[in-house]
Amino acid sequence: MRRPTTRTKARTRTAVATALIALGAALLTPAASAASGAGAPAGPLPIADYADYCGQQCADILPPGQSGNATLAQILAHKAFGTLPAHTSDQLARYDSLVAGYPGLTDAKLNEFFNDASFGVPADQVESTTSPRSDVTITRDKKSGVPHIKGTTRYGTSFGAGYAAGQDRLWQMDLFRHVGRGDLTPFAGGALANQGLEQQFWPQAPYTEADLQAQVDRIRTAEGERGRLAMEDAQAYIDGINAYRVQSKNGRYFPGEYVLTGHINSITNAGEIQPFKLTDLIALASVVGGLFGGGGGGEVQAALSLLSAQQTYGLEEGTRVWESFREREDPEAVLTVHDGTSFPYAQKPADPRGTALPDAGSVTAEQLVYDRTGAAATAAAAAPPKPMKQSMSNALLVSGAKTASGHPVAVFGPQTGYLAPQLLMLQELQGPGISARGASFAGVSMYVQLGRGQDYAWSATSAGQDITDTFAVELCEPGGGAPTKASTSYLYRGACTPMEKLEHTNTWKSSVADPTPGGSYRMQVWRTNYGIITHRATIAGKPVAYTALRSTYRHEADSIIGFQMFNDPSYVKDARTFQEAAQHIGYAFNWFYADSREAAYYNSGSNPVRPAGVDAALPVLGTQQYEWQGFDPVANTAAYTPPAEHPQSIGQDYYISWNNKQAKGYGAAGFGMGSVHRGDLLDQRVKPLVAAGGVTRAGLTRAMADAAVTDLRAENLLPELLDVLRSAPVTDPAVAAAVDKLAAWQAAGTERKETTRGSRAYGHADAVRIMDAWWPLLVEAEFKPGLGAPLYDALRASLTIDEAPNAGHGPTGSHAGSAFQYGWWSYVDKDLRTLLGRPVSGPLARPYCGGGSLPACRDAMTSTLKQAAAATPAAVYPADGTCAAGNQWCADSIVQRPVGGLAHPQINWQNRPTYQQVVEFPAHR
What does the pLDDT look like over 306-350, one tens digit per residue? Predict the structure, then answer.
């Protein structure tokens, strides 16, 4: 919310005294439903036109709505009556309606489901104009309230971006700068979710204030003219946020959460919203980078599963079995660059050197939390939820040779989860050296990060390549005594070196917003020259500490240079210059580009160059011999692979990405890049479109939307499962009925979709329920007997079995939209095809289902299917904080998780980008 009327402020003062206490803990809990609020009066002035070559063929969407601020009065009205301020929820219904509407979608109907993403605002669509300075104007449109920021100076443009961010996301930006700094609970309260957030993010990027400032200084001084300009833009942006912060506080139209969390007195207005500063941008960037731009890590767990395989099968056979599950270079994996071009990186070395496997049973995770008091000492607080999980993204692009118009078509966007308000916000920026519209992460939105320029558009998916390594440092005692696993010094280049202790003591008290009783704890990590300690163990009896070193640590905001270039129309002129701009982004992303002539792809990331023989998939000895080449621990810099070695392409017939393997030879950083991947859902739809030719924006959007409601397990694996079951007559009536239901669902397209819009009941509901219940049972029955319980459990720790939309145990949690990224899909596929005598490239090392016997495998499948068919809806879909037990549609549904005082209706499940663009440029500069 921007600025309320005088009458609204009067109602605020009279309502507070009676309503505050009644609000209570409801502030941060999801509401079952909410209605849209009315818009504000329109302003008179249009924004000036800028060069726009999209010809009204650019569209975007970002639910639930643009506005993310609400005054105290608006929060209270929302809780009492379900009303919502203008533009907080007006994109949600259009986003949701694509589930029912996509089969009949045409180009002419796209804007029924998306915003018109043209530059500027037509005169009759202007809702308001604001000029926080004489050199910038913020114009908002009636339909969505998106800020269109026009500056006559560069400072004014960036100032306007900060001011608009304050208008739309002040509370959220404040919240997440505290997440990044590891002090969320003192700011927002000690709720378990808040404890989980700070415990999740702070250990990934623990910094002192001096560390944060050093990153600001480095960009300003070491990145040339663009670095200096970036920090000037960032300072202007901060100035804009602070201008709105002061004005809204003095005018009493600041976000009401500041009152409800005890920071400002609702009657006297005493209290303060702390000023924003440049180092807050670094803290915010660390959260964004940690969620979406990381890659690698997990080497300790990989080592544990390898050890378990070797203990089960012996050294040689155990290693072979483990490698077949690791799928580093699976020949059947779906690829983004599918023309056969190879980009070797992080491959398995022929002669591994320096691998640091722990002694069996010696590994212990490093303790993070100490000195708990009050609410922090409860049993529930010992394992708080980690509510922010890494989300993913997808992209579909078709080159002009295969489209109806002869111009490339793109449908792409990031899956950033569903928050209210979203982490991303829409904006248009027009000023000297800046011309773009799209989405930016709140708090670092001085540039558009994903969106469109004058004659081009771009987006990204999380790449996840290996930019994080695990080192095993040998522990020592400074005085020469015998070290133990608890020692706090380590050998660094031959010298016993003390670790650096970083810690936060967080104390909170209850508030109206969060009635969690007061409490406190201390978070502590140890930092070494090789990164942050995550585990301790012994190797050949000697105590060691395992550390995690990320190439982008101490460089959280360096990527600002690449984003600056994306926004600069004088820099990005074609696919090649876009790829060159993407080379300045250190985080691991897959970047996609489309203009009127070319579609293109580039994989960014600071990929460290490792010594020959180092296996990036496993821990390595923390000695100089095995350090990254050119490693400087003070600045955390090293030699990185040159741009030519990153996966890239211009003009391929089509591109798809859903966080799948990038290209041949590009080593997978984790488990799960095999023969069945959710990227197949896109590839299996786009490939026939391209073969037929004449692809349109609507046709490519339909392909995306159809994949978004399809069950990967059912589409890709159910045919093989049914073949196993039908390899002999099915005589059990219960099993036969279940087989018939599953077969009918398969024939109908394996969708998880309402029978009719608004029915909240799935077609083929019994088959969906059976599959949800059957999958974990059949995987266990197929693999656990052959692997043995220890190895089966160790492999499950490296790759979860299932990630159905309702699988709350999966990496993204429940009600999160994103699904089917992680699971044992490939393992089941390869094992069953081997059993059925079908060709398999890159098979598993051993047969598993039924010990390689088809009748025995069929018996296991039959018994588990019978068990699954008998499971009641209430057992398959247990009650949670949102849904009653047995409600299948609700269990899948997407919830916009509140990070403030407003909640929104549930919507249909879609496995789809949160922010999404549909673009086709008919012309070019």
Answer: 999 999 999 999 999 999 999 999 999 999 999 999 999 999 999
Residue type, 436: A
| Dist. CA 123–CA 539, nearest whole Å | 71
CA atoms within 13 A on the CB side of 369: 19
Q: How far apart are CA 774 and CA 788, in angstroms?
A: 20
Residues 804 and 772 sit within 8 Å (Cβ to Cβ): yes
Distance in angstroms (rounded) separating the CA atoms of residues 277 and 209 = 11
CA distance 754 to 756: 5
The CA distance from 619 to 355, in Å, is 6
Distance between CA 131 and CA 156 in Å, rounded?
10
Neighbours of 49 (CB within 10 A): 12
d(CA 808, CA 814): 4
The pair of structure tokens assigned to 324 is: 């077949």
Distance in angstroms (rounded) separating the CA atoms of residues 821 and 812? 9
On the 0-12 / 13-18 / 19+ scale of CB atoms within 10 A, 37 is: buried
Instruction: Compute the distance between CA of residue 180 and CA of residue 198 in angstroms, rounded to an integer.
Output: 7
CA distance 24 to 16: 13
Rounded alpha-carbon distances, angstroms, from residue 361 to 158, 349, 883: 55, 27, 41
Contact assessment for residue 523 and residue 204, using Cβ atoms and an 8 Å cutoff: no
* Residue 842 CB neighbour total at 10 angstroms: 16
State which amino acid sits at residue 543.
P
Q: Is 20 helix (H, G, I), strand (E, B) or coil?
A: helix
- Token code pair at residue 208: 């002192």
Q: Using H for helix, E for strand and C for coil, what is the string for 369-402?
A: EEEEEEHHHCCHHHCCCCCCCCCCEEEEEECHHH
Structure tokens, 787 = 């692997």
CB atoms within 10 A of CB 38: 8
Summarize pLDDT for 238-297 with one digit per residue, the tens.
999 999 999 999 999 999 999 999 999 999 999 999 999 999 999 999 988 877 878 889
Distance of alpha carbon 248 from alpha carbon 815, whole angstroms: 34
- Do 47 and 32 form a contact (C-beta atoms < 8 A)? no
CB atoms within 10 A of CB 123: 10
Cβ 153 vs Cβ 432: under 8 Å = yes
Rounded to the nearest 10 degrees, how much is the dihedral formed by the CA atoms of 65, 67, 71, 73? -30
Does position 780 have pLDDT exceeding 50, yes or no?
yes
Query: Is the pLDDT score of 23 beyond 70?
Result: no
What's this model's pTM, rounded to 2 decimal places? 0.94
Q: Supply the DSSP symbol for 105.
A: -
Instruction: Quickly tell me which residue has 């993407």 as its tokens.
Output: 582
Task: Please state, in angstroms and rounded to a whole number, the distance separating the CA atoms of residues 375 and 808.
Answer: 25
Contacts of 183 (CB under 8 A, 6+ apart): 198, 504, 506
Give φ, ψ of 849 to 5 degrees: -65, 120
Query: What's the pLDDT tens digit per position in 836-863?
Result: 999 999 999 999 999 999 999 999 999 9
Name the strand (E) or helix (H) holding 579.
Answer: helix 575-582
**Residue 69: alpha-carbon gap to chain centroid:** 23
Contacts of 528 (CB under 8 A, 6+ apart): 473, 490, 492, 497, 499, 500, 545, 547, 622
> What is the distance between the alpha carbons of residues 67 and 849, in angstroms, rounded to a whole number?
53
Residue 11 pLDDT greater than 60, yes or no: no
Helix and strand numbers, DSSP H then E, in the chain: 25, 30
Q: What letter does residue 347 receive in the DSSP assignment? A: P
Residue pair 523/202 in contact (Cβ under 8 Å)? The answer is yes
| pLDDT for the residue numbered 873 | 97
Residue 43 has pLDDT above 50, yes or no: no
| Whole-angstrom distance, CA of residue 414 vs CA of residue 595 | 19
Identify any residues that bridge with 322 across adjacent strands, giving them in sequence order: none
Q: Which residue has the tokens 């040339």?
A: 224
Q: Between the CA of residue 765 and those of 455, 627, 831, what are the distances in Å?
A: 45, 54, 28
